[in-house]
Amino acid sequence: MAEIVWTEPAMADLDAIADYIAVESPRAASALVQRVIAHVEQLAAHPESGSRPQEFARGTRYRQLIEPPCRIFYRYDGLRVFVLHVMRSERKLRASRLRR
Length: 100
Hints:
Layout lengths: L2 E4 L1 H15 L3 H16 L20 E6 L2 E7 L3 E9 L12
């Protein structure tokens, strides 16, 4: 089983998305956060199950999960899954966001 490690930037990303949604619907924001966390937790047993982001070359070490309306980017080092960035799926990915 891989250890799941949420980075500070990824937690801040998820908080910002939830805050934005909560303006209209606190219940929807809470449900989204729960879905994202549950989806990420599945990586403990299946750390390489995410797809490779289309913005990167084939051999990239980065992977993603999709939990609409979010994309969750992570990297697996053989022991740990590092959750690096969470973004709204309609936004364009800037590679620099993963290298913080």
